[in-house]
Design goal:
The protein is α+β, with helices and mostly antiparallel strands. The protein has one domain: Creatine Kinase, Chain A, domain 2, CATH 3.30.590. The chain is about 45% helix and about 15% strand. Strands 1, 2, 3, 4, 5, 8 and 9 form a seven-stranded antiparallel sheet that branches. The protein has a two-stranded antiparallel sheet with strand order 6-7. Helix 9 (about 235-255) packs across helix 12. It is globular, with a radius of gyration of 19 Å.
Length: about 350
């Protein structure tokens, strides 16, 4: 690994479930009794979930350890209130979401109606360090074509309100209800990026800058590009793989900052994301090299080839190859959830319980 490796931080939204697998509204209690040893834990929109956040880390081994520590700490805090944490991007069981009793969240519930009331969805956000906004925008302008394969790798939400959605990532469908969610156009300069954000806030249709939910954005809190496209990953190994590939994409894009950014229509990027959410790794994806359908294995291979030089320089290629091998052999998380349901005779509570087990494996 080079001495100048970009640091990475991973935020994971985790479901709080009871021992019967049903989402339970205990975030306030869990956070209220959390101890420093549990690590950083935060509210999300719903009382049925928590968010963990790793410290910035530079080696993939450190990143993997921090992800596991975050999950273990969240479970230690949940244990005090009879709950389990589950890395589920949507609940397999039907739920009545409970909005966190904070002014901003209550305002979102009042303003956005069913979209807010049904937002019990969990994502994984990867922060990758950039030198400044100029480098950050150069990265955003170049990574868009490769975000759909990241969604496919993470797909972990086949069920919605107690039924099979037919999607590998139905979270991506629910999340796309937000009017600022999704891919973005080329910006070219930090000034153009910030003007776009300010323009969205000025419309009065979002509460604030924090509701600019681009699939990848400049973080308002850290000197990072924040890649937000993925489902929360069932396995800590998959979350580690996602972090490695996200860093590889940022590094590759930053190195190409002096070359023209690809000019891909937003509607094509959006369609590629829809395909990734529908198929996961179980069917064709849209190949960013041709914008035509290709088997998921080939598209993911193209992603690794695209970032290979960066992975080699960072010392991550062997680990990425091994983690990908495990994912191909075990299947994506949506496939695993469906296989658990079949083995349990359609009992989706059993799926939630097994997901809670897998979260800490």
């Amino acid at each position: 690994m080079t001495d100048s490796a970009r640091s990475v931080g991973v935020e994971e939204e985790l479901m709080l479930v009871g021992h019967d697998g049903t989402p339970v509204p205990r975030a306030r209690d869990v956070l209220g009794s959390a101890e420093p040893a549990d690590g950083p834990l935060e509210h999300e929109l719903m009382e049925e979930q928590l968010e963990t956040a790793t410290p910035p880390r530079s080696t993939l081994k450190e990143i993997a350890t921090a992800i596991r520590e975050g999950r273990a700490g969240a479970q230690a805090a949940a244990d005090r209130h009879g709950a389990r944490v589950a890395a589920l991007a949507t609940s397999p069981l039907a739920f009545d979401g409970t909005t966190v009793d904070k002014l901003r969240y209550l305002a979102a519930r009042a303003e956005f109606g069913l979209t807010a009331r049904e937002q019990l969805t969990s994502g994984c956000h990867v922060h990758v360090a950039v030198a400044d906004d100029t480098e950050g925008v150069a990265v955003l302008d170049r990574i868009g074509p490769w975000l759909a394969p990241l969604l496919a790798l993470s797909a972990n939400s086949p069920y919605w309100m107690g039924v099979d959605s037919g999607y590998a990532s139905f979270r991506s469908q629910v999340w796309s209800r937000w009017h600022t969610a999704g891919p973005t156009r080329r910006f070219g300069t930090p000034e153009a990026y910030h003007a776009a954000v300010e323009g969205l806030v000025a419309t009065g249709t979002i509460l604030d800058e924090g509701m600019v939910y681009f699939d990848a954005r400049l973080s308002a809190r850290y000197p990072t590009v924040e890649i937000r496209v993925a489902d929360v990953c069932l396995s800590a190994d998959t979350a580690t793989l996602l972090a490695a590939l996200a860093r590889g994409l940022v590094e590759t894009a930053a190195r190409a900052a002096d070359s023209p950014a690809p000019d891909v229509p937003v509607e094509v990027l959006r369609t590629a994301l829809w395909r990734a959410g529908r198929s996961g790794l179980g069917g064709d994806l849209v190949d960013p090299r041709t914008w035509r359908p290709a088997p998921a294995h080939d598209v993911v291979g193209a992603l690794v080839d695209h970032v290979r030089e960066a992975l080699v320089d960072l010392g991550d290629l062997d680990a990425v190859t091994e983690l990908l091998g495990g994912l191909w052999s075990g299947g994506d998380a949506a496939t695993r959830q469906r296989s658990w349901a079949a083995a349990a005779g359609g009992d989706l509570a059993a799926v939630a319980r097994r997901a809670a087990d897998a979260t800490l494996e």
